[in-house]
Structures
1.
Amino acid sequence: MNKFEQLGLNESLLKAILDLGFENPSEVQEKAIPLLLEKDTDMVALAQTGTGKTAAFGFPLIQKIDADNRNTQALVLSPTRELCLQITNELKNYSKYEKGINVVAVYGGASITEQAREIKRGAQIIVATPGRMQDMINRGLVNIKNIDYCVLDEADEMLNMGFYDDIVSILSDTPDEKSTWLFSATMPQEVARIAKQFMSEPLEITVGTKNSGSSTVSHEFYLVNARDRYEALKRLADANPDIFSVVFCRTKRDTQAIAEKLIEDGYSAAALHGDLSQAQRDGVMKSFRGRQIQMLVATDVAARGIDVDNVTHVVNYQLPDEIETYNHRSGRTGRAGKLGTSIVIVTKSELRKISSIERIIKQKFEEKTIPSGIEICEIQLLHLANKIKDTEVDHEIDNYLPAINNVLEDLSKEELIKKMVSVEFNRFIAYYKKNRDISTQSSDRRERGDSEPREFNNNGAVRYFVNIGSRDNFDWMSLKDYLKETLDLGRDDIFKVDVKEGFSFFNTDPQHTDKVMDVLNNVQLEGRRINVEISKNDGGGRRDHNNRGGRRDSGRREGNFAPRREGGFRSDRNSSRDGGSREGGFRSDRNSSAPRREGGFRSSAPRNENGGSDRAPRRSESFGDSSRPRRPRRD
Ligand code: ADP
Ligand code: MG
């Protein structure tokens, strides 16, 4: 049997391949074709130029297209007109024994109406350059709303050529359920970003050695104040609900301490360092491989042998003493052709080390800002929504449904969705309005006060949180007007009005603070009392930060409540409050050292150093999986 046959290709393709004179599949073809034929999946394939990528996606594409259906089923995007024509030609060759398949090339510099006419005649496959494709979409000359397959060929080249926005816009015009196949010689950050944004759990294949100067690892740093290091780590974990990471610390003591803190705060973490016995280390590694641990906190020495695929993030909680060590650390991710991110949490005094590392790894770092509470909220909510969507129903539930329906039957679908998601959202908002952002930036932007990032750096202004928003029919202008009138202030006295759905932020100069608090807290809006508070995101005002706050946990902490790692908000909460009770936000119901990954919504609030957990009401009151058996604590 010929090797192409073994890949699962059908008769007409085998015949065409014979005509082409291909004797054996190339490596990328051998790897990609069976996977793509077998099921509908997203795929990222990295292989050097000239390795036969066109056939790697072309053969399965031709085989999967329904020739009897004349609707457009596939879109191939390619960077240039030449490539576009070349691919079209290849695809025509591949499909020459398959009756009824039409491939149309769409590219700039030729008549758009003629191309549109060809498509109208029935083109199952369109091969296009992004610019012309966008053009055609804008003019309504093409419909890609129902395609099944989208191929991004030579993705790195397309992005090099500045087609990022076009690609994003074209992809948003395609259905979510399609399969996306990304082929590229290299994996620069922009390509990884596209993959992250538009693909779901892509299969990843890499062929040959990676092109030098490129890598499957992207490097990011986050500048924070030293005291915010730990908080930053938690937020990064919260912003990446699927994180599977190795967190590097410099000393055994720090390693142990950070792991313990994370566990206390409800994360599935464990420490790996030389003070553990061999048996302990084996146990930790087994849990990590089994993914019962999401964050493995390790010393460089202990992590040396770690060879675990699918690590999504390496986190440099502290930079190593020897910057060469950085390479060893970041090499724990981006393995086996998978994409990975190496993150450095860095303080101002360490910034120059970043440049030194850049020289060593011959790659640039991207400076990022720690996600704000609101951003984490968005991420977690989407994660929650997806989790709900993907949850398989155990029919045991049927027994309980009558009672549940009894309670909920009067709610419309829309109301029900809103309420379900608000179960988490409300808590978060309650937390967020009392919390501050911890971002800082390496440039002197903050000092200069220009280009201010959202919700911090207000140059002495006071930022407020108010519980009215777009739900109350405000946009930023109308809210500004409303505040101006209610408070009898001038137009410029209210600024940075930022309206969210159920709440908003705005700023005033400090001299108006008393008035704002007095007046606004005593007015009603359509019968509802307005609540205004000074936001902790008050820019320069980090004085209120009190990480040593020793409020005790008011509630009992029940261990290992929900298996971690799915949905639910967790611990984006710190101990920055300097008093007052804290409700809402992310909280923790769990503190097992290795809760299992699958299962209910997880949530965890940070505990303060005295062991108190600023916890919100228990998750099981709302969304948790209290019906599940609790797992015994491991520690
Ligand atoms: P790339 O993936 O870099 O775009 P192409 O798909 O354009 O590479 O293929 C490069 C060349 O190799 C083309 O001329 C193509 O016809 C040829 N080719 C592809 N697959 C095979 C094969 N299995 N055997 C022989 N030649 C092949
Ligand atoms: Mg190619």
2.
Amino acid sequence: MRTGSVQPKLIIHGGAGSSLKGKEGAEAVRRSLFTVVEQVYDLLLSGLDAKSAVIRGCQMLEDDPRFNAGTGSVLQSDGQIRMSASLMDGTTQRFSGIINASRLKNPIELAEFLQNSDDRVLSDIGALELMRELQVPYYDPSTKLRLQEWILEREGNFDKAMAGVVAEQELVSEAGRGTIGVVVLDSQGRLAAGTSTGGKGFERIGRVSDSAMPAGNYANAHAAISCTGIGEHIIEECLATRIVIRVTDGMSLPSAFEKSFWEAESRNRDFGAIGIDATGTIAWGKTSQVLLAAYHDGERMGDTLNMGVEMGTQAQLSHAHQL
Ligand code: GLY
């Protein structure tokens, strides 16, 4: 039973990767994603607003050690964890974010606080100062699996470009592009998007992720988008904003995905994105082989885990799907 006049819609992601190895692993990821979809969708049905629903979904995904955000974040080249997150309210078209924050549980909560601040994007020392001011308790987001992954990479002299997309041995091979994201249309027709990440893993100190930029997370009254994948590629395509502006200018959401991913494919980009428009259309796209996304369209839950995996080993190109 919904409370408002609009059927709420929800899509979330837990990253993109090169291939899913084990069926059991895929099942575990699906369970994790569905748990979040179920709980957040229930809140939306009881009238929770889009921004709050995005924050709740991001908190849950950050708290799941399987995904590369919050607990379970990857380690950078110096063995430290630095996390980035952003939140965009489509109704107010207000963006806030935190870049390379350390020692906290939920980076999305700092982005939430900054929604009402004059200075809306803070980085490392600024984040630390804000945590002190808000008395956010120190928290160690590292996990044994991520630590082992880093030690292995150090032995190999960091020859991998980045860490695994999810923190599970043998689940996703080599190059991973972990990030989490939540996109919502609430029962009043409001849109919002949130994205959070531990970064690429093994990166240089000071590297800035797309997840706390409008390139990786963007929303207005027409559409909301969250991206995952190689941050540098997402920034160079300005992907989230590109799709939202296309919809704002009159293109349908599936067409905006189609065109943006066709362009991305021609430039050998490696990423994925999820989105919803003001009419309630849900869409996703990827140039990566797999996109770990799940959704609720008002009638049922579904996911994208097997799309492009069962069929092939080659990169699945230019996918844009309307659900
Ligand atoms: N998309 C996450 C990152 O590259 O940091």
3.
Amino acid sequence: MRKLAAGNWKMNGTAAALAEIAALNARYDSAPVDILICPPATLLSRASDTAGPAIATGGQDCHAAHSGAHTGDIAPDMLKDAGASYVILGHSERRTDHGETDATVRVKTVSALNTGLTPVVCVGETEAERDAGQTLDVIRSQLAGSLPDGLDGAQIVVAYEPVWAIGTGRVPTHDQIEEVHNLMRAELVARFGDSAAETRLLYGGSVKPGNAAEIFALSNVDGALVGGASLKADDFAGIIDALAQA
Ligand code: 13P
């Protein structure tokens, strides 16, 4: 399986930020790992034109429908038309800010797959859930609810992002990350069979160039979903290079 370094720019970046993608393109003609940038939708088309052959682009969300009367929403077909090959779904900020449920994420995942996009489905516990000892139950239940039946494991990416680690500089212990990633692999194999050995499992939450190598050494960590440190080409390159060496 090819590992994946994915950047989620969230609601950051105007035209000037395309220079960061141009800098990554200049640095990686080809790369030993897959590289993905998910800019805001307003930049997607230009980001795709700037990215070059070694860098894929993706959306940060999509609607489940392919077109229609949904003011402000974006269909997966529109992301694809703007050059995307991936879409992040069920990020905790979507679940919190927009009330997305596992059921919402599941129908979006089906729609993204039908459009030929690779979904990056996000799961993760809150701090209160971790403190209550519910982490593994939460992850099991989010995976069960957010993924449709009958998947080929190679078609999807799953990201574990503990909500309390996002943008906080706090990272779970290595044991905590491995416990969740090993559970996710086992759950996916139990449900989708051997193909789930090919599902890329990303860790996300305060990944930086300085901690990336130790996270990538953990079992069943096949890459990262990076927020803040993906906004600057030099920082993201530090993470990409650590993944390439893992
Ligand atoms: P940070 O890397 O800024 O903690 O964000 C993680 C994240 O939410 C990526 O989707």
